[in-house]
Write a structure and sequence with these properties.
CATH superfamily of the largest domain: P-loop containing nucleotide triphosphate hydrolases
Number of domains: 3
Helix content: 40-55%
CATH topology of the largest domain: Rossmann fold
Structural class: alpha/beta
Number of helices: 17
Oligomer: single chain
Distance between the termini: 54 Å
Strand order of the largest sheet: 2-3-4-1-5
Largest sheet: 5 strands, parallel
Order of helices and strands: HEHHEHEHEHEHEHHEHHHHHHHH
CATH architecture of the largest domain: 3-Layer(aba) Sandwich
Radius of gyration: 25 Å
Strand content: 5-15%
Length: 331
């Protein structure tokens, strides 16, 4: 079942006797668990009807015994098994799955990896219960996720701000949601989140970030490129070398592809995942660098990525590698 559908069901008070929540992305799993904990039982009902187990500290027998109990002064009881990926005898739960107690809501929380669908116990859970597979989101769709999340909370966000957040925060949605919550504190519903808000509340500079850096390099603006580079070297915690390399490689590789077309159409930009408001920035690189230089830059970025990981590198620090790389790109 999709996350949105499952969330809507729970909010509407429609519950199932069995849930299997599994996958690499913990955000959606945590959201459903929190929603079940806050929705199924009232605070007074929880005293006798709410049980939480942890896979490392329990066994299947204890879970089944708790699940077979009848609720007290409540229509249902809620049993949650967290960290189920560590439950050694999880296959023993098969006997309970053959005789599920309808007045129990059993939630199996299997985080950080996909449940092994080859095992009979998980096949039975998928057949007899509701399953949510929470797959880790890709970098490509992360900006859209941020946009949707912000709008769902009643705010708006600038496209550039979305791109900056996606690049710096990565694909851990729990981390992204936590950082976004900082932006909502001083905003009224309906207001727009921009680069200034990100700098004030999260600490990502609006003038000295990786996107400004790639723009400066794309425009072959030597002075600004070195100014941003120096800032990044002084603030390496917020500007890790792998993020810089990854962003620049994405930028120059797309520019290289565009350089092969005299007048690239909308379809080309769409295939390269370049939104309209960023197209001019890639055109700048095509104007300021030859196709051969763009290809050479891609190769250099690959080499410096390897050197940053210790390949053919005699203990040269990331700061020195970045200085070398910027010189190679601009000259």
């Amino acid at each position: 079942m999709k996350f949105e559908t499952l969330r809507s069901e729970i909010k509407a008070g429609k519950y199932h006797p069995l849930y299997l929540l599994h996958g690499e992305e913990s955000y959606y799993i945590d959201e459903i668990v929190d929603l079940l904990e806050s929705s199924v039982l009232s605070e007074s009902e929880k005293s006798f009807n709410f049980t939480v187990f942890y896979g490392k500290d329990t066994n299947a027998i204890q879970i089944m015994e708790a699940s077979r109990r009848l609720p007290m002064m409540a229509p249902v009881q809620l049993v949650i098994v967290k960290e189920a990926q560590y439950l050694r005898d999880i296959t023993t739960l098969e006997s309970y799955l053959n005789h599920i107690v309808p007045s129990t809501i059993l939630v199996i929380v299997h985080k950080n990896k996909k449940a092994d669908g080859r095992k009979k116990v998980f096949k039975a859970m998928e057949k007899k219960g509701v399953t949510l597979y929470s797959k880790r989101i890709s970098e490509r769709v992360l900006p859209d996720w941020i946009q949707s999340y912000v709008e769902d909370k009643g705010y708006s966000i600038e496209s550039k701000a979305t791109q900056v957040l996606a690049q710096y925060l990565g694909t851990d949605l729990s981390k992204v949601a936590n950082e976004l919550s900082k932006l909502f504190i001083n905003k009224k519903k309906g207001e727009v989140i921009d680069s200034d808000d990100i700098e004030k509340n999260i600490g990502i500079s609006k003038d000295y970030n990786v996107f400004e850096f790639q723009d400066a390099l794309g425009n072959r603006d030597i002075s600004r490129s070195y100014k941003i580079m120096d800032y990044m070297i002084d603030n390496q915690k917020n500007n890790p070398f792998p993020v810089i390399i990854g962003t620049l490689y994405g930028y120059f590789s797309k520019a290289f592809v565009l350089s092969k077309f005299r007048n690239p159409d909308k379809e080309i930009y769409s295939q390269l995942s370049i939104p309209p408001f960023f197209q001019s920035k890639f055109k700048a690189a095509c104007i300021n660098y030859s196709s051969e230089k763009l290809e050479e830059t891609m190769i250099d970025l690959g080499k410096y990525d390897l050197r940053s990981k210790g390949v053919d590198n005699r203990n040269i620090q990331h700061a020195e590698l970045l200085k070398e790389l910027v010189y190679k790109i601009l000259h």
